[in-house]
Amino acid sequence: MTDVAAVRELAERLARQAGAIQRDRYETTLDVRTKSAAIDLVTEVDDACEALIVDTLAVERPDDAILAEEGSGDDRADAAWRWVIDPLDGTVNYAHGYPRFCVSIGVQLDGTGTVGVVYDPLLDELFAATRGEGATCNGRPIRVSEERELSRALLATGFAYDVHQSDEDNLDHFARFAKRARGLRRDGSAALDLCYVAAGRVDGFWELKLHPWDVVAGNLIVDEAGGRTSDLSGRPPTGDGRETVASNGHVHDAMLEMFGR
Prior knowledge:
By secondary structure, this protein is of the alpha+beta class. It folds into 2 domains: about 5-140, Fructose-1,6-Bisphosphatase, subunit A, domain 1 (Fructose-1,6-Bisphosphatase, Chain A, domain 1), CATH 3.30.540.10; about 150-260, D-Maltodextrin-Binding Protein, domain 2. The chain has helices at about 5-25, 45-60, 90-95, 170-180, 190-200, 210-225, 250-260, and strands at about 30-35, 40-45, 65-70, 80-90, 100-110, 110-120, 125-130, 135, 140, 155, 185, 205-210, 230, 245. Helix 1 runs antiparallel to helix 2 (about 45-60) and helix 5 runs parallel beside helix 6 (about 210-225). The radius of gyration is 17 Å and the shape is globular.
């Protein structure tokens, strides 16, 4: 087994194990805390999932860097491999019993996204990609949609945790797209939104003020499913998530035009 294949196998195993914790604790009493804002939540399930992943990596991949949302990883600049982890993407949903959340694990090699794994434990759907090898859901190949008209497109988006305070709130973009697209969805998990672009369930997605752990895995899965990812100006994504646009490629330019208005 190559190192890349071993990394993907481990990422898939860890995603399923963390997802099992989420499934077992779903709709039980949780200790819910806030972070950067009143709507930015964290629970003991986030912590448990991150601990499982980080502790396992410390044993099985001790030379790798780890960037994890809750801050328990060692993100070292000198490491060739870097794991970018959202242990529970969609914590607000999870805390409310809304069934849309996942584990997201992206792995970079020398700064390039190389492996991406996103696992939805309730639907038991594991989206995965290795650079240059295509994207899959539960082992089956997936592709983006063929829709070419923005007026017939189903799009997804989200809002940052500072939406109550910031004027850069995405509501202007949301209003424009509501007048142009067939429909908009806001489900509260950027990682799953990206995977739904990859699987052809939605035709495009955009969001502002995300973080690397939200997009590293999902962007690779979209790219490997034949889609396109960029910032709001059409440049290649930087990987920090500050500006994220993903689509089937066919409606991408029309989406970018909307941001320029």
